[in-house]
Amino acid sequence: MTAPPVRRRVLVSGSVQGVWFRESCREQAVAGGVAGWVRNRADGRVEVVLEGTEPAVDRVVRWCHEGPSRARVDGVEVCTEDPVGESGFRVR
Q1: What domains are there in the chain, each with its CATH number?
Q2: Confidence tier at 1 by pLDDT (50, 70, 90)
């Protein structure tokens, strides 16, 4: 029996825009088989929605605490939501 998917919404603060965070996040998600999306927010944070198996989603959430080499992550907020059936992963 397959475990049900999980969904997490992640808000990442710090120096996370203009440092290749979104594309690097997409690469991490695709490599792990995680669906969802990532976007820059007007408040300077990056918002990430991840959906997939719990271990795969948790790996990308852990990556969000570090980000790409040029990023400086100061804070990460993670909220659990009900899965909606995301497919693919896109940069918004």
Answers
A1: 6-91 (3.30.70.100)
A2: low
Contact (Cβ atoms closer than 8 angstroms) between residue 11 and residue 74: no
d(CA 60, CA 4) in angstroms, rounded, equals 17
Instruction: Determine the Cα–Cα distance for residues 18 and 62; give it in Å rounded to an integer.
Output: 20
Separation CA 16–CA 75 (nearest Å): 10
Which residues are catalytic, by number? 22, 40
Which residue do the tokens 């040029």 mark?
70
Beta bridge partners of 9: 49, 79
44: buried, middle or exposed (CB in 10 Å: 19+, 13-18, 0-12)?
Answer: exposed
The secondary structure of residue 2, as a DSSP letter, is: P
Span 22-61, pLDDT tens digits? 999 999 999 999 999 999 999 999 999 999 999 999 999 9
